[in-house]
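Q: Given only this backbone (142 positions), what sequence would you predict?
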């Protein structure tokens, strides 16, 4: 009896592992086929657009599929690279906006509530005085 239970258990484990491996292989094959079809379609789309627009606009010759793929690969090498942003290059990381930083930002904006009245009362005249002073300094140094 124990032998039969153990045999059934082992058969079940082997069968389920085999099924998982087959499913994984099937998924990988399907993904490879889809990627291949996407690249094929993308190359033909690029070739179609090039042959439709470039000869009329710039007087260039029409291109074949492999020339279109070559242009895409060359553009990827020249402009895109192959790094995948793993080396720390690219966008700088943003600072986390924690509670202390939020309070600092809010306190900075609280000073602006008097800005309009300041500008109406003193700001424009103060700015004009500043410009006159800078102009005078430039004239004195020349």
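A: Predicted residues:
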């Amino acid at each position: 009896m124990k032998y039969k239970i153990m045999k059934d258990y082992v058969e079940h484990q082997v069968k389920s592992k085999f099924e998982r491996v087959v499913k994984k292989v099937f998924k990988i094959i399907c993904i490879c086929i889809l990627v291949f079809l996407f690249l094929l379609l993308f190359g033909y789309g690029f070739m179609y657009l090039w042959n439709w627009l470039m000869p009329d606009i710039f007087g260039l010759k029409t291109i074949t599929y492999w020339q279109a793929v070559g242009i895409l690969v060359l553009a990827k090498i020249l402009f895109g690279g192959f790094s995948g942003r793993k080396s720390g290059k690219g966008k700088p990381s943003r600072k986390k906006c924690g509670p202390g930083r939020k309070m600092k930002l809010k306190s900075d904006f609280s000073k602006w509530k008097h800005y309009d009245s300041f500008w109406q009362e003193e700001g424009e005249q103060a700015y004009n005085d500043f410009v006159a002073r800078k102009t005078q300094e430039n004239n004195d140094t020349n």
